Amino acid sequence: MIDINTAPTVLAPPSGADVTRDLVYRVDGERTLHLDVYRPAVRDGPWPAVFLVSGDAPEEVISRAKDWGVYRSYGQHLAANGLVGVAFDHRSSERFTRTGDVAADVAAAIAYVRERADEHGVDPARIGVWVFSAGGPFGIAPLLRERPPWLRCLAGLYTVWDLAPLQSSEDHAADAIRRWSAVTALERDPTGLPPILVARAGRDREPILSGTDRFLARGRAAGADVTLLDHPTGQHGFDIRDDDDRSRAIIRETLAFFVQRLTAA
Hints:
- The chain is of the alpha/beta class.
- It is 35% helix and 23% strand.
- It has a single domain (18-263), classed as Rossmann fold (3-Layer(aba) Sandwich).
- The protein has helices at residues 59-62, 69-80, 99-115, 117-120, 136-139, 141-146, 174-179, 206-221, 238-241, 245-263; strands at residues 18-28, 31-39, 47-53, 84-88, 122-132, 151-157, 196-201, 226-231.
- The chain has an 8-stranded mixed β-sheet, with helices on both faces.
- α8 links the parallel β7 (196-201) and β8.
- The longest helix is centred in the C-terminal third of the chain and has 19 residues, at 245-263.
- 49% of the residues are buried.
């Protein structure tokens, strides 16, 4: 049984990052949201930054996701690769009924760090976003629609790229499904699309797999720069659940993807 609060990535994380924890990046009513910044130990920045967008869950589960072992691991991994890792808490979307609120949290976390780039040793013009699980609707779809110039690349591990297979029209209006599905952001002109990495878990739920396949097909048809990393026997959450060579290889390749895309001239 995996304890998400403590389980690190199956690729053993390094140590030595210069970490600043529990910075308040947003206050909305009674909810105060925090983030952690993982910087390389050698202070010769500014460095590109990668924002770690956790998946979704009830509020009592997701409220301190930045402290989970997986995101602490990835913060250390990113810092060891010469990047700044930013892990942050966000609110629950409550089964995608408050997706806009969570998308606003993601935007606020990115804006907070970019506005204080000098303080944190970040290059605000070189930002990557790394999204997990059900984070796709609020962590990927808005960015693929807006395509800000500072977004140099994004990656999704076992991610929800398309809400349609998961939601019926009885649960959500069709326009909301379209708005918050990353796949629909590819329907417009591909100009400005960042490079995208998709990591697929072969033993994932069928609606997630079919949505992933639809996103891949549409991305390729649009001429987008899409990289697929497949784990045919991987579970949802393989980076902490499946301690095997393929899981470790995907973590390494995703880290290399961010380094390459964020440090290229």
